[in-house]
Amino acid sequence: MKSNTMLTLSVKDGIANNDYPISSKRIELEAPKLNSKLPTKVIVVGEDISYSYENGLVKINRNNQRDSNNLVKLNSLSKSKCYFLYDNYSDQPQNINVNMKSIITLLDGRDIEKKN
Predict the structure, then answer these.
(1) CB of 40 within 8 A of CB of 86?
(2) Across residues 71-100, what is the average pLDDT?
(3) Which SS3 state, helix, strand or coil, does residue 16 take?
């Protein structure tokens, strides 16, 4: 029987106090390595998002589309879960660091970028 490993990461992002309405958000994070190996598969779950995983980089996108009354949701806060699946097993404790950046586009077209 083959053993695999799954790592779960919770991601919360947004603008504090919803000070500005947004038109879109993009989060880019480097997939964490386990025993020097990248995950074989990544699954991201969240509300109104799309995502991709390529070459060790996970991109999570959320668009804040205008409704039929030309209004947008003011809530810029969102949560998602990233599941990283590895084809190797480790029962040893490891320090995992994740490099991430968030790019938020405001309704006026300005971009705000933050890196950790």
Answers:
(1) yes
(2) 83
(3) helix
